[in-house]
């Protein structure tokens, strides 16, 4: 079976974890600080705050910017539900703007239509490993004095016009096992604003920067040194992982480009796509997925139901019509692209997709 995703963990990660276990310092400690420094330098930010999940990173980033009740945050409906849920956790309201049909990222022109006096922030999602149009989004934010919190949970190493995702506004990354790099589970907030970094670190640790002195309401959302040790080893490999993903994606695009019924993944000029997912538009999407499964090829639909159409959000009163997102949800299919694939694996994926459409 060729899986849709597979984490790559080796001797370096095992040795790093063994070192931490042997030290006796297994909760948040020096490895977390080391990882924060390394990741902030990688993204071109001055600070980072490591936490226990990507969802926690989004939640804390919002709280650090004082976003809460009566505020509105504009975001994408075409993403994993954690993006919008993190806004609800603060008491604020997610407001959905439709996406671009080619990148699947939030459309800056649609953002403009949603801004009102309650709008406090924009939360773009760098979906599938390609940055949103951050030049346009940052200009909108500056014009309207809005906070920008980047959901970069799928975009480790992605770039927009030479600048890393997560370095435009306040970034939030996930290190779930299937991401481009992992800490087993974890997340991180990136920023060049010292106050936001300090508040983020307080919020993750019961509102405290000095033990037993609590200055604000906080949570227990810390990363462990065990996770950070894995993260340090994985960060060393990240650019190599991404290069493998890009190579596999290029093979897929070349092999699929002539197939009627397929729209291959696209990379916008001036952007670096790191292909967390290689996502196509496909006619007869569900039948293609079933066919590939029979042939031993895993696929994924990311995402089959836009957030504004999820039952809970409909109960909250969301009745938006967002046609580009809704159409994408009916057509997208992610194919294997991860670094563990061999050249023969990629060629098999291409061959079987061609066979499906030849016989359709």
Shape-level CATH architecture of the largest domain: 3-Layer(aba) Sandwich
Order of helices and strands: HHEHEHEHEHEEEEEHEEHEEEHHHEH
The end-to-end span amounts to: 23 Å
**What's the CATH H-level superfamily name of the largest domain?**
Type I PLP-dependent aspartate aminotransferase-like (Major domain)
Name the strands of the widest sheet in spatial order. Answer: 1-9-8-5-4-2-3
The amount of beta strand, in percent, is 15-25%
**What's the number of helices?**
12
- Unreliable spans are none
| Structural shape | globular
Helix content: 40-55%
Structural class from helices and strands? alpha/beta
CATH topology of the largest domain: Aspartate Aminotransferase, domain 2
- Our Rg estimate from Cα atoms comes to 20 Å
Main sheet summary: 7 strands, mixed
CATH class of the largest domain, anyone? Alpha Beta
- What is the total number of structural domains? 2
